[in-house]
Specification:
The protein has 367 residues and is mostly helical. It contains 17 helices and no strands.
């Protein structure tokens, strides 16, 4: 037991001496900072000593074995305004690494555990310093720190601080890019929803949400986000084709037809739109005919056929238009043959089918 006690006393003494040595090293760096500050001849060296001292004292502030808490706190308080000056100085000099070291120290210092009960007076430039720290961290590829400072910047608005709106919007853009690069789609979605809520008519954030939902294969959220875009811009050519294909894939031919019709009105010669619109019309017609196949009443069945005929005629006209552009396309001739079959136009159906079997061109039929 005596040996154990002696060991513990020696161990504790060693920790104490180690802590004192670290305090001495931190204090020496601060003294060197003050010396260079007073001389005023080497600004870079002055701030190098300041940052070194801050990092050492910050580590001591979180060290439970540190026996000089008050000395640590006093030194940190003394360097607080100097870190701000350094951030401003290197911001003007466009030196992001040095500026980041000073700015991050200025932001993080009041958040140290030993200052939990203390209040620091923030300079009125605090929002600009936080934004600068965040953008500098991003430029230096310190993404986790960039996330921390962009979120700190955005949180200031919730505290009633008036922020530059351009910087606020940029903060959301940066966070989106960082989370996307990390493939952290959960956080990316959260920040984009926050941004979309703040900027409800800005489509850029909603476009990025579309990409997130495509990446995560969340079809429900994807359709919802596309619809949010279409409320703002009903004829948006970036998302309408996605909506059209999704609706067609899901068998929602009516909504697919609506989307393809809007696209066709804007671009009537696009082959993908033409074929999509033709398919949507044909699919609606076949669904109507198939659903009415069990109806025994001739009058009711005639009404159903009449409903289907308009969609079939539209599909017919579209396939004809497509084949004047691509007369050897087998898939579009097959589409046209299907229309003839449903319309009961047997001779036309057999001719087109024969052209397909012969590997000939649709121009043979047209002639």
């Amino acid at each position: 037991m005596k040996k154990i006690l002696i060991f513990l006393l020696v161990f504790a003494s060693t920790i104490s001496l180690f802590g004192q040595a670290n305090y001495g090293k931190a204090n020496q760096a601060f003294v060197m900072y003050e010396s260079e500050r007073d001389k005023g001849t080497n600004i870079d060296l002055m701030y190098t000593y300041l940052v070194d001292s801050y990092k050492l004292f910050a580590a001591l502030a979180e060290d439970p074995s540190n026996q000089n808490i008050e000395g640590t706190k006093n030194r940190l308080r003394a360097m607080y305004p100097a870190l701000l000056n350094g951030a401003i100085y290197y911001s003007d000099k466009k030196q992001p690494q040095r500026g980041f070291d000073c700015a991050s120290g200025y932001i993080d210092l009041p958040q140290l555990r030993i200052f939990a009960a203390d209040l620091f007076q923030r300079d009125n430039q605090y929002p600009a310093i936080v934004y600068y720290a965040a953008t500098s961290a991003y430029a230096l590829k310190k993404n986790n720190q960039a996330i921390k400072y962009f979120n700190e910047f955005l949180s200031l608005e919730q505290q009633g601080v008036t922020l530059d709106d351009g910087q606020v919007k940029s903060a959301y853009v940066y966070l989106n890019m960082i989370y996307n690069s990390q493939k952290n789609y959960t956080e990316q979605e959260k920040v984009l929803e926050r941004a979309a809520k703040k900027y409800p008519v800005s489509l850029d954030f909603l476009y990025n949400l579309v990409n997130v939902h495509i990446a995560t294969n969340n079809m429900g959220k994807l359709v919802n986000t596309i619809d949010r875009i279409l409320v703002i811009d009903p004829n948006n050519v970036q998302v309408l084709p996605i909506k059209a294909r999704l609706m067609e894939k899901q068998g929602n031919n009516e909504k697919a037809l609506e989307a393809y019709s809007r696209l066709y009105a804007m671009n009537p010669n696009n082959m993908e739109i033409l074929s999509g619109l033709a398919r949507a019309n044909f699919n609606i017609a076949t669904k109507i005919v198939n659903e009415g196949a069990t109806i025994a009443d001739d009058t009711q069945y005639a009404v159903i056929r009449q409903r289907a005929s308009q969609y079939l005629m539209d599909a017919h006209d579209l396939f004809i238009k497509i084949l004047t552009i691509e007369p050897t396309s087998v898939k579009y001739m097959q589409g046209l043959a299907g229309v003839y079959q449903f319309m009961g136009m047997d001779s036309e159906y057999h001719v087109v089918t024969q052209i397909i079997n012969d590997g000939a061109s649709y121009t043979t039929f047209a002639d």
